[in-house]
Task: inverse folding
């Protein structure tokens, strides 16, 4: 019986971990273009959503190893920027909860094809920070999937100011994906609970009826009065 209860506890803990992992997979930070050719300066747009209950007040972007930032940046209204070769920091503005904003920057170019991992640190008004990794891919010019030079060397047009409705529309697809993962995890948890409950019931039945398990003596045995 104790073994059955232990199995039930393990099943519940495992299901809870799956649900937590699904909930954590809903980050909304993006860098575009996601694919660009090597060997030339390229303009990028960083988009970050505020999923906290306080304002997002700071963005720190760390360059991948071997990549240097260019001199050109774009800041939303009320934001200021400082930059070095490997770090860009935006401060002074505020992204309200459930909205998103965009920032722009340039790199001098990537020397070799491969995946470039940017680290984005989000700073909030309550002093909380959140680190997110966002990947983009450098490919050789002319290779399959490589964008044209005009696509990646022209700065992206500044989007209209984000509104709560825009944020809800944008977050819908991502949130639906995260919701689907959470529902799947919940289904796994329910199945695990049912299996464990069934095992507990079988174990209890066997403990209540030991005679049937051991044969219990022959039905035609002669009674000795």
Result:
């Amino acid at each position: 019986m104790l073994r059955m209860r232990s199995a039930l506890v393990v099943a519940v803990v495992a299901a809870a971990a799956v649900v937590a992992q699904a909930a954590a997979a809903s980050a909304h930070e993006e860098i575009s273009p996601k694919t660009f050719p090597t060997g030339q300066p390229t303009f990028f747009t960083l988009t970050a959503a505020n999923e906290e209950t306080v304002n997002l007040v700071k963005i720190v972007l760390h360059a991948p190893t071997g990549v240097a930032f260019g001199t050109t940046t774009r800041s939303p209204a009320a934001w200021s920027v400082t930059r070095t070769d490997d770090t860009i920091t935006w401060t002074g503005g505020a992204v309200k909860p459930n909205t998103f904003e965009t920032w722009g920057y340039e790199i001098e170019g990537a020397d070799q094809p491969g995946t470039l991992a940017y680290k984005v640190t989000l700073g909030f008004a309550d002093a909380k920070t959140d680190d997110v990794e966002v990947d983009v891919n450098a490919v050789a010019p002319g290779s399959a999937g490589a964008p044209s030079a005009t696509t990646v060397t022209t700065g992206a047009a500044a989007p209209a100011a984000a509104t709560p409705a825009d944020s809800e529309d944008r977050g819908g697809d991502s949130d639906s994906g995260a919701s689907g993962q959470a529902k799947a995890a919940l289904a796994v948890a329910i199945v695990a609970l049912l299996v464990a409950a069934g095992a507990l019931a079988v174990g209890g039945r066997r403990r209540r009826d030991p005679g049937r398990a051991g044969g219990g003596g022959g039905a035609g045995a002669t009674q000795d009065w």
In short: The radius of gyration is 29 Å. The helical segments are 2-24, 149-152, 164-208, 210-214. The longest strand covers residues 114-124. The chain has two domains: 1-26+164-202, 33-162.
